[in-house]
Amino acid sequence: MHFNTALLSTSALLGLAAAAPYNPFPLSDGFPNPNATELKQIGVAAGGTLPNGPLPTSLTPSGTVTLQLIALNEIFEVAFYTDLLKNITDCVSGYELTNYNRTFVIETITAIQNQEKLHYLGANGILASANQTQIKPCSYKFPVASFESAIALANTFTDVVLGVLPMAQTTFATDGGQEIGLVNLLGSIIGQEAQQDGWFRSVQGKVPSAAPFLTTEGPAFAFTFLQSVIVPGSCPNINLISDNVPTFGALNVLSMPPAANSTVYYSVNGTVTSSANSLVYISGQNLPVTVAISNVGSKNGLTTFQAPLPFDTGFAKGLTIAAVVKGSGQSFANVSAVATATVFGPGIIEID
Ligand SMILES: *[C@@H]1O[C@H](CO)[C@@H](O)[C@H](O)[C@H]1NC(C)=O
Ligand SMILES: *[C@@H]1O[C@H](CO)[C@@H](O)[C@H](O)[C@H]1NC(C)=O
Ligand SMILES: *[C@@H]1O[C@H](CO)[C@@H](O)[C@H](O)[C@H]1NC(C)=O
Ligand SMILES: *[C@@H]1O[C@H](CO)[C@@H](O)[C@H](O)[C@H]1NC(C)=O
Ligand SMILES: *[C@@H]1O[C@H](CO)[C@@H](O)[C@H](O)[C@H]1NC(C)=O
Ligand SMILES: *[C@@H]1O[C@H](CO)[C@@H](O)[C@H](O)[C@H]1NC(C)=O
Ligand SMILES: *[C@@H]1O[C@H](CO)[C@@H](O)[C@H](O)[C@H]1NC(C)=O
């Protein structure tokens, strides 16, 4: 066994250190139900308005679930940036910003918070236009307690969002509904989220643009990841999504690898064996990569194991997704096929 026990116990502590359930809604500007005056002010703070063209009046079932998942994510983001802004303006310990231009940081996060409000209202507006159920807010738990860790988390969840919106475009373009106009709309949101993400990366001293082609992990991994920041049982209508999109068991990544071939350590709450399972990586726009797992053991009630990360074979910097799948040694044609075989995931790996 070569596990780094310090990392294991740190990860166990992080799991236990979850903050009190957070639900700031409704905000002082009426969000998520702003009136016309308040909506106008949100637009001013966001740097622009909701699209004012006609919306689809019907959606396919897959188009509906796709928009509901987008709305669930966007309102989580509004909650997160609302709390982050409050921590900064209240000078909460860890959020003093002594090494940053505080005025600029507050301006930037205020813009992002209001942009995310309009993303949420936009997705819900399309659902309403097509007489489909709008997604309501939940309570959240953020595993961060400093500006740096909050920005690192924002970088990660924005990477995950950027890995689901392209697949949403594919759904809108191919499901035969009235949704073709949404492909362009989502393209504008992808660019917008990527502008935010470039800033999150540069705050951490990373090159703003991670890789030539970003990672697409799709709805099942994104939905499972999103639930890690949602208080279980706190969402009034998350069932609309969970009836249609699977949730996997958590895959914990215990060591962040460098941008080179390396070994990564993982844990899950459940059974994994090297003969019945393998680990699959999704990185950039490359085919999924399957590797063997080894050194299966147990620690603190969790199953631990290791797997190689063959970064030098062509992985993208930024987000890589790991998944434990059923079966050993098989290869996968695409991300959907990986999701179909997944038992635990997504393991979130951020490289450079
Ligand atoms: C919107 O709500 C605000 C705050 O409650 C109120 O002052 C304002 O009059 C309302 N505006 C409209 C157009 O209803
Ligand atoms: C805000 O600060 C509190 C107290 O440290 C912390 O629990 C919470 O996760 C922070 N939220 C964000 C978004 O940074
Ligand atoms: C800090 O940011 C504000 C707002 O963008 C700007 O006006 C100011 O010049 C910046 N201060 C420094 C020292 O760069
Ligand atoms: C909207 O959906 C509800 C059920 O969700 C249905 O009762 C109603 O007739 C629908 N309205 C229209 C205009 O399609
Ligand atoms: C593992 O899962 C079981 C059953 O869901 C739960 O009771 C237990 O607390 C979990 N253990 C850890 C370490 O998360
Ligand atoms: C990285 O690992 C792959 C797969 O094991 C191997 O083919 C390649 O030679 C390694 N590259 C380097 C630079 O070590
Ligand atoms: C993914 O691969 C599976 C299995 O080969 C195939 O059936 C499916 O059509 C592919 N999906 C996409 C979106 O290419």
Core attributes:
352 residues; alpha+beta; four-stranded antiparallel β-sheet; globular; binds 2-acetamido-2-deoxy-beta-D-glucopyranose
Report on the architecture of this protein.
With 352 residues, this protein is an alpha+beta fold. Helix content is 43%, strand content 15%. It has ten helices and eight strands. A hairpin with a 5-residue loop joins β3 and β4 (289-291). α2 (36-46) crosses α4, α3 runs antiparallel to α4 and α6 packs antiparallel against α7. The relative contact order is 0.13. One 2-acetamido-2-deoxy-beta-D-glucopyranose (NAG) binds at residues 261, 310, 312-313.
Produce the secondary structure layout.
Layout: H1 5-16, H2 36-46, H3 61-89, H4 102-129, H5 147-162, H6 165-174, H7 180-203, H8 219-227, H9 239-242, E1 251-253, E2 262-268, E3 277-283, E4 289-291, E5 294-299, E6 302-309, E7 318-326, H10 335-341, E8 342-351
Antiparallel strand pairs: 1-2, 2-6, 3-4, 3-7, 5-6, 7-8
Helix pairs in contact: 2-4, 3-4, 3-6, 5-7, 6-7
This protein binds 2-acetamido-2-deoxy-beta-D-glucopyranose (7 copies).
Brief synopsis:
The chain has 352 residues and is of the alpha+beta class. It has helices spanning 5-16, 36-46, 61-89, 102-129, 147-162, 165-174, 180-203, 219-227, 239-242, 335-341, and strands spanning 251-253, 262-268, 277-283, 289-291, 294-299, 302-309, 318-326, 342-351.
